[in-house]
Specification:
Helix 5 runs antiparallel to helix 18. By secondary structure, this protein is mostly helical. The relative contact order is 0.12. It is built from 20 helices and no strands. The longest helix is centred in the N-terminal third of the chain and has 28 residues.
Length: 441
């Protein structure tokens, strides 16, 4: 039985159609519907949470609208990337057995539902042409770019006020209901994608390559203007790793072209200096960080201080893991237990400062103990063992995603859950399409 399922998986990996799938007309209809819903999900990020939920449910339903459902489930079970991502849903789900706050637990499970639905949906046999995958990439970049322009309009309406707000840990208004952390990460992903398309198209489509180059430059500028650390760290991590990879590759295969990597390293040092010299928001962000550092370096509580609270919350998360190392406190009770620790350790702390442990690793550890932390690490590592086309691009994306979770809790909010699961699965399916030679038109 296992070998039979494995053969099904191998056929799917090579791009072979499900034997029980209906005729070509039906496949074209499903392909069109899937593409429309993929675009709808991206657009919904900037419309409303309700629209995002509805479009995602429709996409999941459309992916199962065929007669090969058993084979789709088999593909899901035999793909480590897919079932690995679903573990990020099942761990919180199972913790309901030892969570006391059932209402909070149900809310968390609802938020994390895309971590199950989207892997199941992307296990489906639907196929898009390479051209349509490229269109989806272009639409994603266009939407993110439009979002940055919208933010610039908000900034232009009160430049001095916004700049002053950066000295109080505030930022420019962003899409995603002002979720600047998740939006900044999406911008860094758009930089990676636009730069890659610029390089890919430089010979066959010079005009579009030029457009992608201009967009890349604009998005890099915006990242520094916005000055949100998640997006900046993601960008600089990508730039550093890409520079090192280019240096190694060029030295090995083209000894005279090591300068590609050198240019990247020079930009790595130049961008922050230019941002400091020209962008008041970036300057004020650094000034606030330096002010905050004197407190969080000693874990000294300062009301309203962003970095101080992150450091304190990490201590709280670590404490919860060690108090319940085998099963954790349950995802429904993480906030309650963290608040109790805050009350005992920092009785002067105001309610608005009582935040979740500021690391997704620690959240899973607090909710499910050391097993939860270990399995979360495994889930973050699985993508690096998946065979795809353009492995360097795939690795950079997943390093960026996993790295963002070190000091952020993106999987505890709707936009973060969707952004992570959708983009990783979209790129996985896209690169599988290229690898299996799906038609170009």
């Amino acid at each position: 039985m296992f070998m039979y399922r494995l053969s099904l998986f191998n056929r799917y990996e090579r791009g072979v159609s499900y034997k029980s799938m209906p005729n070509k007309l039906y496949n074209n209809w499903q392909s069109n519907m899937i593409f429309i819903l993929l675009v709808a999900m991206l657009l919904s990020l900037f419309i409303s949470r309700a629209a995002l939920s509805v479009s995602m449910m429709l996409f999941a339903g459309a992916s199962f609208f065929h007669t090969g459902i058993k084979k789709q489930v088999a593909v899901f079970l035999l793909s480590p990337l897919l079932w690995g991502m679903s573990l990020l849903f099942f761990l919180p789900l199972l913790s309901g057995f030892w969570s006391n706050d059932i209402d909070k637990w149900m809310e968390i499970v609802r938020i994390k539902l895309p971590l199950l639905l989207l892997p199941l949906a992307f296990a489906g046999p639907f196929k898009l042409s390479v051209r349509r995958w490229n269109w989806l990439a272009g639409i994603f970049i266009t939407i993110i770019t439009a979002g940055t322009i919208w933010s610039m309009i908000q900034y232009s309406a009160d430049i001095s006020g916004v700049q002053a707000a950066y000295l109080k840990a505030k930022t420019i208004a962003t899409p995603l209901h002002n979720d600047h952390i998740r939006f900044s990460w999406l911008v860094s992903v758009a930089v990676l994608l636009a730069a890659w398309l610029c390089i890919e198209w430089r010979k066959e489509n010079k005009k579009m390559a030029l457009v992608m180059g201009i967009v890349t430059a604009w998005l890099i500028f915006f990242l520094h203007l916005l000055a949100v650390r998640t997006g900046l760290f993601s960008f600089y991590g990508i730039l550093l790793l890409a520079s090192v990879w280019l240096s190694i590759k060029k030295i090995k295969h083209q000894p005279g072209r090591w300068k590609y990597g050198l240019v990247g390293l020079i930009l790595l040092m130049t961008f922050p200096v230019l941002a400091w010299l020209t962008l008041p928001t970036f300057q004020n962000r650094i000034k606030y960080f330096r002010y905050d550092y004197s407190y969080f370096s000693n874990t000294q509580y300062l009301p309203g201080a962003n970095d101080v609270m992150r450091v304190i919350s990490i201590k709280a998360g670590w404490k919860l893991i060690n108090e319940e190392p085998l099963k954790g406190v349950g995802f429904g009770d993480v906030q309650t237990e963290v608040n109790a620790w805050y009350a005992n350790t920092y009785p002067q702390m105001v309610e608005t400062d009582k935040i979740y442990p500021a690391s997704e690793w620690l959240v899973y550890g607090a909710g499910a103990g050391w097993p939860g932390l270990f399995l979360f690490t495994v889930c973050m590592g699985i993508p690096f063992f998946v065979r795809v086309k353009n492995k360097s691009l795939w690795w950079l994306l997943n390093i960026s995603a996993a790295g963002s979770f070190l000091f952020d809790i993106g999987l505890e909010v709707q936009y973060g859950v969707f952004a992570y699961s959708f983009i990783v699965l979209w790129w996985w399916k896209w690169k599988k399409t290229i690898a299996t030679g799906t038609q170009k038109h």
